[in-house]
Design a protein that fits this description.
The complex is a heterodimer of chains A (436) and B (400).
Chain A: E1 2-3, H1 5-13, H2 15-20, H3 25-45, E2 53-58, E3 61-63, E4 68-75, E5 82-88, H4 100-104, E6 105-110, E7 115-122, E8 128-131, E9 134-140, E10 146-153, E11 157-161, H5 170-180, E12 194-200, H6 212-217, E13 222-227, E14 233-239, E15 246-248, E16 251-252, H7 253-270, E17 274-280, E18 284-288, H8 296-304, H9 316-326, E19 331-336, H10 341-358, E20 360-366, H11 369-375, H12 381-406, E21 410-414, H13 416-432
Parallel strand pairs in A: 3-11, 14-17, 14-19, 19-20, 20-21
Antiparallel strand pairs in A: 1-10, 2-4, 4-7, 5-6, 5-9, 8-11, 9-10, 12-13, 15-16, 17-18
Chain B: H1 15-43, H2 62-70, E1 74-78, H3 81-87, E2 92-96, H4 104-117, E3 120-124, H5 128-134, E4 138-149, H6 156-161, E5 164-173, E6 180-185, E7 188-195, E8 201-205, H7 221-229, E9 234-238, H8 245-248, H9 260-263, H10 266-287, E10 302-303, H11 306-318, H12 321-340, H13 350-360, H14 368-373, H15 380-399
Parallel strand pairs in B: 1-9, 2-3, 2-9, 3-8
Antiparallel strand pairs in B: 4-5, 6-7, 7-8
Helix pairs in contact in B: 12-15
The chains are: A alpha/beta (436), B alpha/beta (400).
Chain lengths: 436, 400
């Protein structure tokens, strides 16, 4: 049962006849009894809410920043027309702030025995799964004085995927990859690279790669071409512990790390390498394993979508053990974590030798541009102290990075918008050097 | 992709669910009602109609009323004080069956009537709460058991009636007051007659037993009752009741200050009342929400640079100029050492760094030793200047 503004207005207008014509209980009764009767009639004549039938269809996943459309079909099986307000409730982060009212509310009229479709447009502001809450229908009577109200549960979920903004860097990195492949020009020779073919020498080629035997057999100077190894194994390990929750700019470190992981996945799968993914803090949070090159990127995107940072200290020992268990042969282990001194020194450094013994370890971390800005503030005493604190933080980070490098790890420390290309470049450099 | 339409999406509880939910409460309510009714029927049987002249129950008083009527006494039964005072005059006996039930203002009003215009007033069992007003000068003592007592006084009615069943309240009269004290219990009377002006008098009965149907035929009960109540041609039998309007009108309204509301035309009042109903309806309209709020688990929002900012504030609070200066100097040394061709591990030894620096910048004005390895700044201004000078030195090294 719900009343409308019209009811209150009628009651207010009723004060005029009551005040002027019949200022007594009889007058009150003469005004309010018909009003009450009209309300009851209206309520009785409103289309029932309980028997309505709902069907959902539409998008089940959307990239963060895009709009998703979820259709809702309302069937009115009763013999009375439905004039209703409908609220399709979703969690608040499904809409841009301030647009929730207009996006979730609908007015609809469904004649008796017919069905209508309406569309709710979602514009999620965060990654993760958005589940439809209840549908509330307020069915008005023919006079518009009273309404029946009821709820329906019609489940639906929209998965909001990471935005993958760094995909704009993919074409340039793929071009670099083709250069490495020996299809276009000079190759850098590295240990363990695979022999590809012989071709005629062109000025500019590395003289070390001239194949003298082949040259002797033919009239022209022949050089060997190499191509980087294929079918290497890459294990991306995402640290979802407390250090990944800190926001750099307006996004958490974890999201920047995910972006870098996606670019690396896209690039490595094109390069013919196998990519696995692991997200870990104190337990396994997500994993992708053994996918073919074609469907690894969608699988990784799907696995990353619902991940949120946990406010716990990462268990580095467990992380190393899990990573080792999932990398049986020589692999490139890409650790996306932070370079904060304490967690690295107490957690990662003791287990790093285990990892580096059999695998190549690449550690990527999101640095904070705000710290770099702070380090250059001058002029006021607060500014100088800020600069000193920021310089201290940076020198600690670089000291930690040096320690890691001494243990044989490659370290990439970059701001959120440059981390993904920097990680891709580090991967390409390792590949070119034949260290995979 | 679409799902098959289901008719069970509604979250409104069905009639069966409502019944399942409500039946426990309904059962408890029914038990309470039945229990209450049963208790009421069992417990109220003998207390019903006590001292009522129409009641033939053991504790009723129909017998004495019939006897009085048959002797030609006109009996009037009243339940409100207004009726009681209106029905009385000099030829009347007023019987008040429960004077303790009267409110203070009712007692005062009754007392005014008693002293001026009632022949005889019989008060049955007046206690502490009513004696002060209705019988000034008389106080009550601890009550006694109801039993057969001898008159032991000179009151004509008592001597004629002989011993009767009395007890209950015992009364103490102020010294020097004239009163007939009869049916003593340990020296205190359970029947007291206080003569008033002219022929009026007041009789206090400690207990109502002589008026009960069940006791009327014993001893001299009937005789005493008939003599006490039959001394005047009219008898007003007053049973105080809760429906008496005078009980609630404790505050006397003097009527001199006019009520503000009475000055407003009634049309405005009724119109405002109707507007209030409209406001209530509007409140109901606005209060009904279109579905409940949706809750959501929010992510943690903390800046990654918070620890660094906190450390800056700590430096500021502790005035850690030495620490800040050494951090800045170390950073500058680390940065310029590779530019000067000095290995990084030697960057912090003055003997290696300074010669290389003076070789690169022979004409520099600043004192590099004081700048890079000097003591901690003494005040804030020096620290700010030091930071600027370090920047300038680094720029010089880079551009040289």
């Amino acid at each position: 049962m719900a009343l409308t503004g019209r009811t209150a207005l009628l009651a207010a207008l009723g004060s005029i006849p009551v005040g002027i014509l019949a200022p007594s209980w009889a007058g009150m009764l003469a005004v309010n009894a018909p009003l009450c009767f009209a309300i009851l009639c209206d309520y009785a004549l409103a289309a029932p809410v309980r028997t309505l039938q709902f069907t959902r269809s539409g998008d089940t996943s959307v990239r963060l920043g895009d709009a998703a459309h979820v259709d809702l079909t309302v069937t009115n099986p009763s013999r009375r027309p439905l004039r209703a307000q409908l609220r399709d409730a979703w969690p608040p982060s499904s809409w841009l702030p301030g647009t929730e009212q207009t996006s979730s509310r609908h007015r609809l009229t469904v004649p008796a025995g017919e069905r209508r479709r309406l569309t709710t447009s979602l514009r999620p502001t965060r990654r993760g799964d958005r589940r439809a809450e209840r549908i509330t229908v307020r069915s008005h009577g023919p006079l518009g004085l009273a309404a029946r109200q009821g709820n329906h549960e019609v489940p639906w979920a929209v998965r909001v995927l990471p935005p993958f903004t760094s995909r704009k860097h993919l074409p340039s990195r793929l071009a670099r990859l083709r250069e490495l492949d020996g299809r276009t020009s000079v190759l850098t020779r590295g240990e363990g690279t695979e022999f590809d073919s012989l071709r005629e020498y062109v000025p500019g080629d590395d003289t070390r790669s001239i194949d003298w035997r082949a040259t002797a057999r033919q009239s022209a100077v022949a050089v060997r071409t190499w191509r980087p190894e294929r079918d290497r194994h890459i294990l991306i390990v995402l640290d979802t512990g407390r250090t990944s929750a800190g926001r750099v700019g307006d996004i958490p470190r974890l999201d920047a790390s995910m972006d870098a992981a996606l670019l690396l996945t896209a690039l490595a799968s094109r390069a013919g390498d196998r990519v696995d993914l692991l997200a870990y803090d104190r337990r396994l949070r997500a994993q992708v394993q053994g996918r073919s090159a074609r469907d690894v990127l969608p699988a990784v995107v799907n696995a990353l979508a619902p991940l949120e940072p946990e406010l716990v200290e990462t268990d580095a020992r467990g992380l190393a053990a899990t990573a080792l268990a999932r990398a049986p042969r020589r692999s490139l282990i890409v650790l996306l974590t932070s370079l904060d001194a304490a967690p690295i020194e107490e957690g990662l450094l003791p287990v790093l030798p285990q990892l580096a013994q059999r695998h190549t370890v690449l550690l990527a971390s999101v640095s904070d541009p705000h710290i770099a800005r702070m380090a250059t503030t001058r002029g006021t005493i607060e500014g100088v102290y800020e600069a000193a604190a920021a310089t201290q933080t940076r020198s600690q980070r670089s000291r930690t990075a040096d320690q890691l490098r001494r243990h044989g790890a490659t370290v990439v420390d970059a701001s959120p918008d440059t981390l993904a290309p920097a990680l891709a470049d580090a991967y390409l450099a390792l590949k070119a050097a034949g260290r995979l | 992709m679409s799902r098959p339409a289901t008719s069970t999406t509604s979250t409104a509880p069905s009639a069966r669910q409502l019944w399942t939910r409500a039946r426990g409460a309904a059962l408890v309510l029914a038990l309470v009602l039945i229990g209450g009714l049963a208790l009421a029927t069992l417990r109220s049987s003998d207390a019903h109609g006590a001292l009522d002249p129409r009641s033939a129950d053991p504790n009723g008083s129909r017998a004495v009323a019939e006897l009085l009527t048959s002797r030609g006494i006109e009996l009037t039964l009243v339940t409100t004080l207004d009726e009681a005072t209106a029905a009385t005059d000099q030829d009347t006996t007023l019987l008040v069956t429960a004077p303790d039930l009267l409110t203070q203002s009712q007692q005062s009003s009754l007392r005014r009537t008693m002293t001026s215009s009632i022949g005889r007033t019989v008060l049955v069992g007046p206690g502490r709460s009513s004696l002060d007003t209705l019988a000034p000068g008389v106080t009550s003592s601890t009550s006694a058991r109801v039993e057969n007592r001898a008159p032991s006084c000179t009151l004509a009615e008592a001597t004629r009636a002989g011993s009767v069943d009395l007890g209950g309240e015992r009364y103490l009269t102020a010294p020097g007051a004239t009163a007939d004290s009869c049916y003593l219990s340990d020296g205190l009377p359970t029947l007291l007659r206080l003569p008033g002006q002219d022929t009026t008098d007041t009789v206090l009965l400690g207990s109502p037993d002589i008026l009960y149907n069940k006791r009327l035929d014993q001893q001299g009960n009937a005789s005493l009752a008939l003599q006490l109540l039959g001394s005047r041609p009219h008898l007003v039998w007053y049973l105080p009741s809760l429906t008496d309007a005078s009980a609630t009108a404790d505050a006397p309204d003097d009527g001199t200050t006019g009520n503000f509301l009475s000055l407003i035309p009634s049309g405005w009042l009724w119109g405002t009342l109707q507007l209030a109903i409209a406001a209530l309806l509007a409140a109901i309209w606005r209060a009904r929400r279109l579905g409940p709020l949706v809750t959501e688990r929010l992510p943690v929002a903390l800046r990654a640079s918070e620890a660094t900012e906190g450390r800056a504030r700590l430096y500021r609070k502790a005035n850690a100029r030495d620490r800040a200066a050494s951090v800045l100097r170390t950073a500058t040394r680390t940065r310029i050492a590779p530019l000067l061709g000095v290995p990084v591990q030697d960057a912090h030894s003055a003997d290696r760094l300074l010669p290389a620096l003076s070789a690169r910048l022979p004409e520099t004005t600043a004192d590099p030793r004081h700048l890079l390895f000097g003591p901690a700044p003494a005040d804030d201004a020096t620290l700010i200047r030091l930071a600027d000078q370090l920047d300038a030195l680094e720029r010089e090294v880079r551009t040289s």
